[in-house]
Amino acid sequence: MSQSMSSPPQKVINMWSGPRNISTAMMYSFAQRSDMTVIDEPLYGHFLSKTDAVRPARELVLQTMETDGSKIMQAALNAPCPTPFLFLKNMPQQLVGMTLDNPHRFTHFFLIRHPKDVIVSFSKVVEQPTMQDIAIKEQYDFYQTLLAEGIEAPVFSSVQILQNPEKSLRQLCQAIAIPFDPAMLQWEAGQKPYDGCWWPYWYANVHRSTGFQKYVYQEKQVPKHLENLLEEALPFYHFLENRLVNS
Predict the structure, then answer these.
(1) Looking at domain 11-241, what is its CATH homologous superfamily?
(2) Average pLDDT, integer, range 157-180
(3) For the chain, how many helices (H) and strands (E)?
(4) Which of the four pLDDT bands, split at 50, 70 and 90, describes residue 127?
(5) What value does the mean pLDDT take over residues 160-185?
(6) Residues whose CB falls within 8 Å of the CB of residue 71, separated by 6 or more in sequence, listed in order
(7) How many other CB atoms sit within 10 Å of the CB of residue 243?
(8) Is the pTM of this model over 0.90?
(9) How far is C-alpha 212 from the chain's CA centre?
(10) Which of the four pLDDT bands, split at 50, 70 and 90, describes residue 224?
(11) What is the 3-state secondary structure (H, E, C) of 118-148?
(12) Edge to edge, what strands does the sheet with 11-17 contain?
């Protein structure tokens, strides 16, 4: 399905995920739809321009991406789009210093992962992650912001999706009012043209995938120096976990 390149998207879907989740796999999943255009973390340049966050490819992101967050989100709503739907892979900590104007014009959902898993994975790239880095409080805060606007966005977990991808994606599509497309279950391995320029540092595993990997529980040990970070994050995670769409 296509539309005139002069037309803005009919629906802009914001996925609000934390890092080291299956957010890139979710972006690949949505990208398989003929009615969908995807953008990888459009607010990353804005985030880095407003913080001193240590990230691989930081300078490249700042040199190549728009850094005005409000302009970015308005363009998502109003710029020409080749498909009826636009999917934005977003992270709520990247809203730093800005308010999302017109939140009712977007369709929102949240993707969560247990902070223990996020911390263990993130610390392999950035040794000393912070609360802002793992973003679970920012997910909680933004969920509350949407609630205050009368928007109750559906919440899904990475475990839920990996345990039963088709069932969960059907539920997700129903929750955000788009038809399910079986094409969402598979993609080709390798780099994608819509990958952010930071892909060499983060996307090795997902580039080897051709679909959602079967969920296998693995016990993880948070490094001693990050145990306090986990304890601080858990209440925000449990609040969102209690709002998961029933699987």
Answers:
(1) P-loop containing nucleotide triphosphate hydrolases (3.40.50.300)
(2) 97
(3) 12, 5
(4) confident
(5) 97
(6) none
(7) 13
(8) yes
(9) 15
(10) very high
(11) HHHHHCCCCCCCCHHHHCHHHHHHHHHHHHH
(12) 36-40, 85-90, 11-17, 107-112, 155-157
Who's near 168: CB < 8 A, 6+ residues apart? Answer: 156, 160, 161, 247
CA angle 65, 97, 108 (to 5 degrees): 75
Q: Contact 243/155 with Cβ under 8 angstroms?
A: yes
% of the chain at pLDDT higher than 90: 85
Report the SS3 class of residue 40: strand
Separation between Cα atoms, residue 16 and residue 187, nearest integer Å: 22
Residue 14, beta-bridge partner list = 88, 108
Cα radius of gyration rounded to whole Å, the chain: 17
Q: Distance between CA atoms of 209 and 226, rounded to whole angstroms?
A: 30
**What sections of the chain are H helices per DSSP?**
23-31, 44-50, 58-64, 69-78, 115-122, 131-134, 136-148, 158-163, 165-175, 199-202, 204-207, 227-241
The least confident of 108-112, 202-206, 217-221, 236-240 is: 217-221
Domain boundaries of the chain, sorted by first residue: 11-241
